[in-house]
């Protein structure tokens, strides 16, 4: 319990039984991290001809107002959570049209022009930089290179990703790399006349699998061309 100031309010009555009351009131009091208004006690000094003088302390609690410490911290946490959720949704929605064009209309001029543009990577890069700025703390480097040899450790990375902003930035990072890999596969498929729709689709969520899929597909396509008899 913390108490910043003590106020006294004496009140005495005169009569056959003389009573003197002193109110002890705490101002700006906190009880277990909660704000309490008007907590204190009343000290009754009663004197009678028969019993003499005696003091009685009666606790008094006028009102109890819950008040959490550091409201700015909770507000900041809520704001950061909302930002992380919004950027997560925005980044996911931003890449879907490009995957749709590569899968539905891979040979259309609109798809080719869209995949030659650097705008989606710039937008995703800015979103990633913004989240990285918000999530960066003095402990970030320590968590990334937690071992004594300055190498990443799984426990440190897991602790770092417990922050929603950091997790959202990692998701934007993955979306950017996955889209870039899908574009490379798309362009390589057009150049070598290889089917890429299945590999591009896999890059959306399983980028390494999509790359492996394209390598296998390209190898099989080239083998099929070599074994195909030529018509003279």
UniProtKB/TrEMBL annotation:
Pfam entry (one): ABA4-like
Keyword Kinase: no
UniProt entry keywords in alphabetical sequence: Membrane, Transmembrane, Transmembrane helix
Keyword Membrane included in the entry's annotation: yes
InterPro entries reported in the protein's UniProt record: ABA4-like
Residue ranges that the Swiss-Prot or TrEMBL entry lists as coiled coil: none
Transmembrane segments: 83-106, 118-136
Name listed for the protein in its UniProt record: Neoxanthin synthase
Species annotation: Escallonia rubra
